[in-house]
């Protein structure tokens, strides 16, 4: 795919992307009574785009001419660079770190996905959705500027080994799960629900205090309307996380997102990837192999991540396993809503955990350690 040639000359602090239809996510589509739900009370929608329009020259300077040492990661869209920008130069503000995603002209992803990201994140806000600060659309250059997420993506922390990636304690895993679930619940709270469609560990970014935010919204899609139970669309996403009904038929349900969440919940329990060719053939697909362990509290201990060293609430872990099974149900209608998932996880978090002291130690070593910098590869935003 070659990027469409478009030109936008001057930079402004607030602007509209005229080439993108903003009717996709109109404010009228959000449910009216969102303030009664803890999952969505902090979320809101703007009537129009409120983004800073950067020039390519500005971003080139901010990212040190896009040198290799500024690269945070790379995905199908292109490379992500760390940069520094002045939020309000006129008032002498201090430069802040940002993540700049630069479209690869040879990217297999479509221009439409870039437009969706701008239109969606430019008008929607929630504590558990990554914040888009602005964009650049100049000649063949397409770039997105996001808030910088200091701890990178969840996938690295969950599966990578090494001194800079200490095992996530049980309490911290629950915190991340609850935040990610709230982000999905917010998307599903719209009058015409929004399906995320690519929920996975690499799309969950963590700030300096390990607060999670969903990222990479290029595949978001409106849920069904007119009384329909699903929409039919081209199958996209990530194999291993995608719901079986979506893979086999192309029928996409709101609760297809719930299945993806169930896969990640399983990964958090056992510390194993959804798909891993290096494992024995019978264990290649984590969901198929692990399901029998989830329904038996005695066998569950064999499945739990050994790096937790048993420092988790056994009853809470079993309730999380039961929730995982519900999310992975074969029929979409048998899966819980994301609001119900949030409530279940909050109840599990409320249980007294054996890992409280370990969590404090983890934060002392990682969050409050002065001068600590991490280089997170494969960071997707």
TrEMBL record:
Pfam families: PK_Tyr_Ser-Thr (PF07714). It catalyses: L-seryl-[protein] + ATP = O-phospho-L-seryl-[protein] + ADP + H(+); L-threonyl-[protein] + ATP = O-phospho-L-threonyl-[protein] + ADP + H(+). Residues 66-363 form the Protein kinase domain. SUPFAM superfamilies: Protein kinase-like (PK-like). It is an enzyme of class 2 (transferase). Keywords: ATP-binding, Kinase, Nucleotide-binding, Serine/threonine-protein kinase, Transferase. InterPro entries: Kinase-like_dom_sf, Plant_Ser_Thr_Prot_Kinase, Prot_kinase_dom, Protein_kinase_ATP_BS, Ser-Thr/Tyr_kinase_cat_dom, Ser/Thr_kinase_AS. CDD domains: STKc_IRAK (cd14066). ATP binds at residue 102. One of its GO terms (molecular function) is protein serine/threonine kinase activity. Its EC number is 2.7.11.1. Belongs to the protein kinase superfamily. This is non-specific serine/threonine protein kinase. It comes from Triticum turgidum subsp. durum (Durum wheat).
């Amino acid at each position: 795919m070659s990027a469409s040639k478009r030109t936008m000359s001057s930079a402004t602090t607030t602007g509209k992307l005229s080439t993108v239809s903003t009717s996709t996510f109109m404010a009228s589509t959000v449910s009216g009574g969102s303030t009664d739900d803890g999952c969505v009370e902090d979320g809101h929608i703007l009537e129009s785009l409120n983004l800073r329009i950067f020039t390519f020259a500005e971003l080139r300077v901010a990212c040190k001419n896009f040198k290799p040492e500024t690269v945070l990661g790379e995905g199908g869209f292109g490379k992500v660079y760390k940069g520094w920008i002045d939020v309000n130069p006129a008032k002498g503000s201090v430069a802040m770190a940002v993540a700049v995603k630069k479209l690869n002209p040879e990217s297999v992803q479509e221009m439409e996905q870039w437009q969706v990201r701008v239109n969606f994140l430019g008008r929607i806000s929630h504590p558990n959705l990554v914040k888009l600060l602005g964009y650049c659309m100049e000649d063949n250059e397409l770039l997105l500027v996001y808030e910088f997420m200091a701890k990178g993506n969840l996938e690295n922390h969950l599966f990578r080994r090494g001194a800079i990636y200490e095992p996530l304690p049980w309490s911290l895993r629950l915190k991340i799960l609850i935040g990610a679930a709230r982000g999905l619940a917010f998307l599903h709270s719209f009058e015409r629900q929004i399906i995320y469609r690519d929920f996975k560990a690499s799309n969950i970014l963590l700030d300096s205090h390990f607060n999670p935010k969903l990222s990479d919204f290029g595949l978001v899609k409106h849920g069904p309307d007119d009384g329909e139970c699903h929409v039919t669309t081209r199958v996209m996403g990530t194999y291993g996380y995608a719901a079986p009904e979506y893979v086999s038929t192309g029928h996409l349900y709101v609760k297809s997102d719930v299945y993806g969440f169930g896969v990640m919940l399983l990964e958090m329990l056992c510390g194993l990837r959804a798909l891993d060719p290096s494992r024995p053939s019978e264990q290649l697909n984590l969901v198929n192999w692990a399901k029998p362990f989830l329904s038996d509290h005695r066998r569950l201990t064999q499945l739990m991540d050994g790096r937790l060293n048993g420092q988790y609430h056994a009853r809470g872990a079993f309730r999380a396993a039961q929730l995982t099974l519900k999310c992975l149900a074969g029929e979409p209608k048998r899966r819980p809503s994301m609001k119900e998932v949030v409530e279940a996880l909050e109840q599990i978090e409320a249980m007294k955990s054996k890992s409280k002291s370990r969590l404090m130690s983890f934060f002392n070593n990682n969050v409050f350690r002065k001068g600590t910098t991490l280089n997170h590869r494969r960071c997707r935003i």
